[in-house]
Design brief:
single chain; globular; six-stranded mixed beta sheet; alpha/beta; about 260 residues
């Protein structure tokens, strides 16, 4: 690891561009918002988390994303499109690629999946506080980066699996471009890894920023080596330009240790 806190593998020559896409709005996003607004303890999702589909709005967002991607010159298009295996991400990737008219096949990688919540799955914050008060207290004490619910993952756990994904960008032939379709926490934690953020920095970002559905984040490094540079973050102009609803479904903003 160098003085910037980056491993050698993150700096080696390889890919030159990285596009990060959050999936379109899902039925789970809608259900979670409704549960929060109604004060419910349980989020009424129609399926287990990996199987939750895009909402109607999410499908429109994925098509608008594809229309925006179609504008990329052929020689600058991603060479690989890799998605979280979760239905909402995979559907976003497939709709966008088809709409863009790209010949690329959408690959999946389980390391891009959303954070696993263990016993807290499907519970709102109120549900956690009422059903697992000890866990609610422990989450406040430890903060978002290090709190691991029983049977689930901490953000640090997610960052660990993402490091191996990012390392593999450097095993590709130099000059390759890659698009990853994934989840809001995954995108924030990729920033954490690539930019060598501290705990305070990533938690400040998480508390102040909601990664928009079907938004685009772009990293570049023209030489294919060294530090990745953040070119743009959380861009959803392609949705507003096409008259598609921009949706914001964020997690709990109480992320710092207390």
């Amino acid at each position: 690891m160098n003085e910037d806190g980056l491993t050698d593998a993150v700096q080696e020559a390889g890919a030159v561009e990285l596009l990060l896409i959050r999936h379109g709005e899902s039925e789970g996003n809608v259900a979670a918002t409704e549960a929060h607004l109604s004060g419910a303890e349980i989020i009424d999702v129609p399926a287990r988390d990996p199987d939750v589909n895009l909402s109607g709005t999410g499908q429109e967002q994925a098509k608008a994303l594809g229309t925006a991607l179609a504008r990329i010159a052929e020689e600058l298009r991603p060479d690989a499109v890799v998605s979280s295996p979760y239905a909402r991400a995979r559907q976003t990737a497939e709709i966008a690629v088809e709409t863009a008219g790209w010949p690329a096949k959408v690959l999946t990688d389980e390391r891009l999946r959303d954070r696993e919540l263990g016993i807290l799955d499907r519970l709102t914050r109120r549900g956690v506080e009422n059903r697992y008060p000890d866990e609610a207290e422990r989450r406040l004490w430890l903060g978002k980066l290090y709190y691991r619910p029983p049977g689930g993952e901490s953000w640090a756990d997610v960052a660990l699996r993402l490091r191996s994904v990012l390392d593999e960008l450097n095993t590709l032939a130099a000059g390759r471009r890659v698009m990853l379709v994934c989840h809001d926490a995954v995108i924030l934690l990729i920033r954490y890894v690539l930019e060598g953020m501290s705990e305070d920095e990533i938690l400040d970002l998480a508390a102040s920023t909601s990664v928009l559905n079907a938004s685009i984040t772009r990293y570049v490094r023209p030489t294919g080596a060294g530090r990745w540079e953040l070119e743009s973050f959380n861009v959803a102009d392609h949705l507003t330009e096409q008259g598609v609803t921009v949706t914001e479904h964020s997690g709990d903003a109480s992320v710092h240790p207390q």
